[in-house]
Amino acid sequence: GIGGALALEFHRAGFRVFAGARRAETIAPLVALGIESVSLDVTSDESIAAAVAHISELTDGKLDMLVNNAGAAAHVPALDLDIDGVVRNMFEVNVFGVMRMIKAFSGLLIKAEGCIVNIGSIAPIVPLVFSSAYNATKAALHAYGDCLRIELAPFNVQVTTVITGGVKSNIVREADPQLPKGSLYEPIREFWLKRVQQSQNKPMETELYARGVVKALMKHRKPIWFWYGAFAKLAWWIYHFTGKSWRDLVMARWFGFNKLKVIAAQQKKARQWQEMKRKAGLA
């Protein structure tokens, strides 16, 4: 995935790289190439503290760059979300996990006058529909990074948010995604499936993405927001030159909401007709 490709590209650029993962077997190929592994669960304070202690001992208490790439995603209509399960987990990984990591590693980063890199997304920029909770986590990450950048500037720590477009990734693993039974969006299921598969529709190769990101981060003055990946340039244009109403119209057309509006109106009319007949029968 993206994390492995970034680790490998930094390694090729001459960095000493520590790759964190919950399961050692997932990064075994990277270890075989000389990258050092760290047991890490970004949702656990204890795991993060152990990783900080381990890396600090090996680097004289310094860290030049922290890349927050761990991520979880779910592309489900807002009304069908599992709030206390799926959504809570996404925020734990995508937002709170990043906050935990930065707070825990801040001493090492300040000592090195290093850089924090948060992997964001074009999804909340566009915004891509059927991903409200995922978009919310990435929008929160973008906002967090903007404040963090200002707060850490006095300590010469830079903060970059990578606004990532479509990249080959294993973040969405459902082989046969299904809408929940009774979903209001079943009439436009084909459009929902189109959205689920959107990020993997002509995505940028992971290795190419990693090379571009690492090249940008090798600069002395690093970018504040770095837009990269398939459709990232289009998202940049949308962000800077269009309004929210225009974006709403485009999303409604692309993903079947105009069709759903017609269907919903027909269903409403049918219910009203049935109600009229029922009342007439009762009379």
From TrEMBL:
Keywords: Membrane, NADP, Oxidoreductase, Transmembrane, Transmembrane helix. Pfam families: adh_short. SUPFAM superfamilies: NAD(P)-binding Rossmann-fold domains. The chain crosses the membrane at residues 225-242. InterPro entries: NAD(P)-bd_dom_sf, Sc_DH/Rdtase_CS, SDR_fam. PROSITE patterns: ADH_SHORT. GO terms for cellular component: endoplasmic reticulum; lipid droplet. Belongs to the short-chain dehydrogenases/reductases (SDR) family. PANTHER family: NADPH-DEPENDENT 1-ACYLDIHYDROXYACETONE PHOSPHATE REDUCTASE. This is Putative oxidoreductase,short chain dehydrogenase. It comes from Ascodesmis nigricans.
